From TrEMBL:
Source species of the chain: Dreissena polymorpha (Zebra mussel)
Region (Disordered): 84-122
Record's protein name: Uncharacterized protein
Start-end of Basic and acidic residues biased regions: 92-109
Top-level taxon in the UniProt lineage: Eukaryota
Length: 122
């Protein structure tokens, strides 16, 4: 979640990608420059199923929606996207999120311990 515009729903798609061995092409209502591919390794693979989703930023609409595209159009988008960006949430991003979550949990435990000690001293 350290990456800009990376949210919990996006990480859920990464987890689904890992579990189901699939990938997601996410078309953004803000334009092709905001299109993302979510896959196991951050790269498009022709031999792995690819599902197409639409994305509306949180202040605009439904967030993620299912899209049905003609296969030829989807393949053209995937080739264009893969050649231009290759951008995705990767395993490294997931690990960074896990580390941040662990750090936050430890910080919360430390805060609770300090509050308890402060209460006892009063």
């Amino acid at each position: 979640m350290r990456q800009p515009k990376t949210y919990g729903d996006h990480l859920t798609l990464v987890a689904l990608s890992r579990e189901l061995n699939c990938q997601f092409l996410i078309l953004n209502s803000e334009g092709i420059d905001h299109t993302r591919l979510v896959s196991i390794d951050g790269e498009y693979a022709e031999d792995i199923a690819c599902f197409t989703l639409g994305y509306f930023p949180e202040n605009i609409g439904e967030h993620y929606v299912s899209l049905g595209l003609e296969e030829s159009y989807k393949q053209r988008l995937l080739r264009t996207f893969h050649n231009e960006t290759g951008s995705s949430v990767t395993e490294t991003d997931i690990r960074m999120h896990e580390i941040e979550t662990e750090d936050q949990s430890r910080q919360n435990e430390d805060d609770n311990t300090n509050e308890s000690a402060h209460s006892i001293n009063q």
